[in-house]
Amino acid sequence: MQNKNRIKWLVKNSCACYLGAKHGISNYCCLQDSPCVFFAQDDGLLRCTYFENGVLPMDEKLDQEYTSERNVESEFKTAQPRVNCQKCAATFSAHSNRQKYCEKCRDKNANEKTKLRMRQMRKKQA
Ligand SMILES: [Zn+2]
Predict the structure, then answer these.
(1) Residue 26: φ, ψ to 5°
(2) 117 C-alpha to ligand 1 centroid (Å)
(3) pLDDT over 60 at 1, yes or no
């Protein structure tokens, strides 16, 4: 992560939750009550909501890098709710909150509905 040092710098200088050293913890974050996530040894793509909303916008360029590096927006777009099918209990990712059945059961349901409709039509004709 190339911009980690710049993130750290921004946290040190601008984050209201960053308190330097407190309770014997260095890089203490009062929001986490533990060291700030960006100062952890973990080199992954760390996230902090407070930082993203309250500190990061101050540095426009870093904001862009941070966002694209973490795919912040696309992550939200592709996040689909995991739902259990009400018929067969299989887990599937729903395209909407209203989806209650997995694709298999949905097809089955549609077939059954069509069958019923056909039966009723035939009754009327008879
Ligand atoms: Zn199902």
Answers:
(1) -85, 150
(2) 22
(3) no
